[in-house]
Design a protein that fits this description.
about 160 residues, alpha/beta, 4-stranded mixed β-sheet, two-stranded parallel sheet
C-alpha cells in the first residue's frame, strides 16, 4: 500500500515512531477519531481497528462519524472492527485476571481491560447508533458481520 496514514492520541507513541523513523514524520499524526487532522475528502478508505469502543459518549460517536464523512471521498469505504460480545469480553477479562498472577503480560492485559470496562459496556449497549448514523448520512452497508469475538462493519459513501 502507498499513502497510508494514521492518527493516535498518544503523543509519546508518536514521538517514538518519529524518533525510530518507522514511518515518515507526516504519516502518523497526533490526533483522535473525532478531530481528524486531515483535509476534506482526503481518503479512499478509513480503517478503524478497536477504536470506537474507547469513546465514552454518543456525542463522540457522532463527531467521529461526521469527521469520517468529512475526510472520506465519495465512493470511499469505511471499515470498522470492534469487539462483538460482552460475555466473551468478560470471559477474556476473567482469564487475564487469573493469569495476571503468573504473567506480567496478562497483568497488563487485565489492567487495560479493567480500565476500559465502562467504555466497552457503553459500546455494547450503543453500537447500533453507529449503524444508524451511517445510514442517515446515506452510506451503504457492505458488511455487517458478527464473529465470535469481533464485529466487522463496512460501509461505502455514495458518490455524489
Amino acid at each position: 500500500y502507498s499513502n497510508v496514514y494514521g492518527v493516535d492520541p498518544n503523543e509519546e507513541l508518536i514521538q517514538q515512531i518519529h524518533k525510530n523513523e518507522i514511518f515518515d514524520a507526516d504519516m502518523i499524526r497526533l490526533g483522535n477519531s473525532y478531530e481528524l487532522p486531515y483535509e476534506n475528502k482526503t481518503f479512499d478508505c478509513i480503517y478503524f481497528f478497536n477504536v470506537l469502543h474507547h469513546l465514552p459518549t454518543l456525542e463522540l460517536y457522532s463527531k467521529t462519524i461526521d469527521e469520517v464523512d468529512r475526510c472520506i471521498k465519495p465512493g470511499g469505504i469505511v471499515i470498522m472492527i470492534e469487539p462483538n460480545n460482552e460475555i466473551i469480553y468478560s470471559i477474556k477479562r476473567f482469564f487475564a485476571r487469573v493469569l495476571s498472577y503468573v504473567s506480567a503480560f496478562f497483568s497488563d492485559m487485565y489492567h487495560m481491560m479493567a480500565a476500559e470496562k465502562k467504555d466497552i459496556t457503553f459500546f455494547f449497549q450503543n453500537h447500533n447508533f453507529i449503524k444508524q448514523k451511517y445510514r442517515e448520512l446515506g452510506y451503504v452497508a457492505l458488511r455487517n458481520e458478527r464473529a465470535l469475538h469481533q464485529w466487522t462493519f463496512v460501509v461505502k459513501k455514495e458518490k455524489q
